[in-house]
Structure formats: structure tokens, C-alpha cells
Design brief:
Radius of gyration: 42 Å
Number of helices: 22
Helix content: 25-40%
Distance between the termini: 170 Å
Strand order of the largest sheet: 2-1-5-10-11
Number of strands: 14
Amino acid sequence: MTTLSAPPRFTPPGPPPKRRPPGPPPGGSGPGGGGRGAAPPPPSPPGGGKGSRRSQPRKSWGKRFLTGITVLGIWSVIVVAGIVAYVAHDMPSISEVAAAARRPAITLVAMDGTAFQRLGDLRGETLDVGELPRHFVDALIATEDRRFWSHFGVDPIGIARAAYTNHKAGRTVQGGSTLTQQLAKNLFLTPDQTFKRKAQEALLAIQLEATYSKEQILTAYLNRVYLGAGTFGVDAAARTYFNKSARDLSLRESAIIVGLLKAPSRYAPTASLNRATQRMGVVLRAMLDEGYITQAQLDAAMTPPQAPARTEQADGDGRYFAAWVADQLPAFVGADHGDLVVHTTFDGGMQRIAQQKVTEMLAGPGAEAKVGQAAALVMTPDGAVRAMIGGRDYANSEFNRATQALRQPGSAFKPFVYLAALEEGWGEYSTVLDAPYRKARWTPGNYDGRFRGQVTLRDALAHSLNTATIRLMESVGIDNVRHAARRTGLTTPMRRDLSLALGTSEVTLLDLTGAYATIANAGEGVIPYGILEIRDTSGNILYQRHGSSAGFAVAAPHVEAMNRLLAGPVTYGTGKAAQLDRPVVGKTGTTQDYKDAWFIGYTADLVGGVWLGNDDGAPMKKVTGGGLPARLWQAIMAEAHQGLPPRDLPGLGRQAPDPASSPASSHAPPAESDVQTADGLSLPDAAPAGPETAPPAAANEEGSDPIGNLLRSLTGR
């Protein structure tokens, strides 16, 4: 028998490969059970052993690579889908484009009929992008989104460029958002800088691009974008800054408005013409780089722009007043009102006078005396507010120190003690003791450290004597003083102890000035107001003021007596710096450590109030009410009265009642041991500061001539 063998070509070269020992055959028992029952090894495949060893691993790694790529792709799709689902689950629908909300526009009109402030969202005519000048659209594309016409809503090149630029600068100096993304953010999203918001912005931009044409997207963007000064949309901006339709914008004007997109409030021509011009140059050079204009056109457009023609006054004029009025509107027409035109009591000329005088004082003597802030009010005797300064600079602080700040009035509160005394039967020439005073640990004194013994009420108020006023309040009663102050218009909480006489309970400048106005208004109660009429944009009257609702507050004889008492501080007392070319009455006020200084006063035509101090309560440099506040009040009121003939105040041309016949002339303050204060109330440890300047020696006073007094009592004059 012939034995068959494999052909030579199948014989593996070299020694045979090592093979793994075969496992035990079925039924075998471990290593020793393989014996005779083991199956022979399979024959080698054709082609030899070496080639087979290399081809098998290649095939295995290829399969593994493809499998890994497939799995990675599947998981990537799952992760991306999850992220998209998370981002999009609360994303607004782009069908809400037409329903985007806006704040109602409020136009405030001054006494002379001119609009001085616009609040809310001011919108002009809705214009199609095809109605705008071509150079306006070119300026927008060149500056904000150079690949607008070619991208799909998101610009990867722009994002990469912005990322590189920001990394190189070490801070954010450039954005990568497209105009479509900006529209999505303006329409639907908040300005929060979060990953989710940015992802939603990108998804919405892609949706917008898939749904609307490029022209429609530009139209929506240009009619909704904020462009400073309360304006939304290019037409509103054109009318506000240049008093013309956006259809008629020149190349220079177009570049100015497009330049606002970077920072509307900073680059508005009404805020800074120099910054607006510089930004305009950036826009024009971008247009030149993109080939939209020539060098000659750029040179012509770079001619410095003239001041924008506007029908309203400069930004910032009356903004404290405007905010005060706007806060009151919901009480008159409800919170869900539409666009409004509000006619107010505002006087632009008087406002500019007050602003100029306050600015000059703060920059000059105020700076030397460490005065950080000021507030001022001018109103008519019936409470119509004509001018309001709520602080040094509205742009830096919107907090209104005339209407919101609660500060101690100091001696400016004292007139209400004297009003209560008059109502309790005291006379102007009734006397009260000015002497050292002590109540437990409370030992108030007078500003100059002097005591004058028995003094008339007239002199005690003129020289702002603390101890005399405290004793007067003891006799009159704390509750009677509180009641008198309430009736005249002070609405803030008041202490129920003797320190109230020295102005330790906080008030606002508006309330305190309004309380003085009640006396100036012949005793009729005053509620300061700034709104005369409210109309909707169709001209329908929604509210119209008719008279005052405060009612009777002070009897006519007491009004005349208070006018005579308040003439003392200005005539010969602590407020002489407030004198004008006409009868003036008023009172100074200074708080402890010179933290607050006041002057409140009035003529027959106007009532004014001034406060000086610091927001953090830091002391000023010995500023008293009779100093800078009285001088500032005088400077404002002197110009505010120009053109008005001098008029007398009730009671000033009439003699005071004879002190000998006054029913209160025999009143004497009770002994300290007899004084009863409210149970459970403690007095302060230290007294607030008293009068503002050392009073001069008393001049010859009315009533010092007994023969003349007798004649006056007999004749009734």
C-alpha cells in the first residue's frame, strides 16, 4: 500500500509551529485522559503557516475598528440628541415672533407743551428692509455680520475668529453671534451668559433661517433692536436722534445708528457726540474694507456730525422727576395700561436753573465741605412740583434723594411744635424758658452753648433754641405736635418722645417741603403732585386733575402767625443767607455731627426745599442749614422768581397781637418734675445738633413799645 503525503508546496518551511495541546476528549479525565481518544490536529490551510499567521490578525483589528467607530457614532448621536432635547424642551416657538411683548411707551410733556422725557419702549414706523437706504444695510452687514448672506444662522468661521481673538486678548473683546442669533436672543431669550441659553440661541437661529428669508430676518431685527434713549427699531432711533424717517438717513447718520449696536447708551449722540463720531468712523472703515464705499465717500461722511435736531430737551433733564411720575401711573390708570401721553407740572427752565446751581455748589464749596449728595425741590404753594433734583447724577445713581431718602430733619421740624403751640392758645410773644435742661441722661443744649432765659416764641424759633423748644413741646403735648405735623402732610412714622422737637424722626424732602407748602397755601392741605392729565395715544383722556383733595389743615389766623414766626429765621435768625428781593419765610435744619443740612422756605409764589449730606451718613465739614443749604436755596429761587413781581405773604403786613393781651402770655412751662412722657419710651442719650449759627443780638422787636402796642390794640391795626 502506498502512503499519500502532501505535495511539497504545502510543506511548511522550518520547524513545525507550536500548537496548543488539545483538550481532553469527551469523557476524558484531565491531562492524563487525552491519550488515544484525542482528535488529530486540523491540517494547515493552503499557503503555508507564516502567511496565515499575518492575515488573521489584520482581519480581526479591522473588524474591531469598524465596530468601535459604529458604537462611538451611535453613542454620539444619543448624547447629542439628549443635549438637544434638554436645551429645546423649554425653548420658545419661532411662531411667537409677531407676539413679542414690549413695555408701554410713556411720553412726558412739560408745562409749555414740549416732550421732555420718553420712557418705555419707543417704536417708530415698522419698515421693510427694502425701504431703508442701501448704505444702511451695507453698514449693518459690514459691522455686525459679514457672512450674513451665506451662513445658515450660525457662523462657525466667526465663532472661531472670536474665540482666537478673545484668547489672544485674555478677555472677551469680540463676539461670534450672527444677526440671526441676536434676533433670536432679542425675541425669545434672556441675556444670561449660560451654555443652555447660547445653545438655544443657536438652535433658534437655525430654525429662523430655515423658516424665513434673509430679508425677513433683517426686517424683524431692525424693527426690534434697542438703539438707546428708550428707542426700539431703526425708525424710532432716526426720529429721536435726527428728527427724520429712517428712509431718509444719510451715510453718516446710518453709520452713527449702526454704531449704537455695540453699546447704545454709551454711543448715543445725545450722550456723547465725540464717542458717537469715533464709533461712526469704525463703521465707515468696515464698509470701506468690504468694498461698500470708496475712500472719497468715507472722507465726506467723516465730517463731524452736527448736534442732532430734537424736539425734546437733552437726556438727563428731569429724569428724577420722570421716574417719580412714572411710578405713580399705575395708581391712576392701572398696571396694564398701553402707550400714554402724560401732561405734567414740570418746568424745564426752572429744572435747568436748579440743576445748574446744585452742580456748581457740589463742585465748588460742597466739595471742600465734604458734601457728597444734594437734593432740591421747587413747587407752587398748591403742591405742583416744577423742578426736582434727586441727586448728583441720575446716570450714576437712580435713587431719588428728594422722594425716597429718609433723613432726620433736625430743626427744620420745629415749626410744627410752634404751630401746635399756637393752636393750644400760645401767642407769638408768649415766653418760654431757655435754660439748661436734663432728662435722665439726656442733656440737650443750644448750638452756641448759650442760654437766654425767658424768650418769646418768635425769638426761640428765629434762633432755633433747642431747650426752649423742648420745654414748649412739654407744655403743648407730644401728641398735639404729632397731630399738627400729620395734618400738614408729614406721613412718615414719628417718635413719641421729647426728642421729636429736635427733628429725630425721619422724613423725605418731598414730604417736608409739602408740609411747609400747606402753610404757604393759606392752610389748605397739600399733597405734592406732578401729573395734570393722562391720555392714550388716540387722545382719549384717562385722568385729569381737578383741584386738591387734602382738605383744610391750618386755620387762617394760625397761618398768618406762622408766616410771621417763620419770617424771623430769614430776617434776623439762622437763615439770613436765604433773603431775596421779596418777602421770604423759612427754617434751617442741621442734624447731629453735621450729617444732614436743610433749608425749607417759601414766598407767595414758590416753595423750595434743599437737603445736603452723604449717602453713607458720613459727616460733612461743619455744614449747617444756615450755610450752604440756605445759599443754594437762595441761588435757585432768585432766578426762579425772575419776571415775577414781589407779593406779600398773609400776615406779614399785619401787626402781631399785643403780647400783653395774648391769652397765652401768662403761660409758663411746667416744672421738669411735672412733665409726663409716654410710658415705656426712652429719651436719647445725646441731643441732636441745635441752631445752625450763633444768633445775633436781638434787634428792636415788634411789641417792645408798650405805648405803640396800646394804640394798636385800641385801633385794631
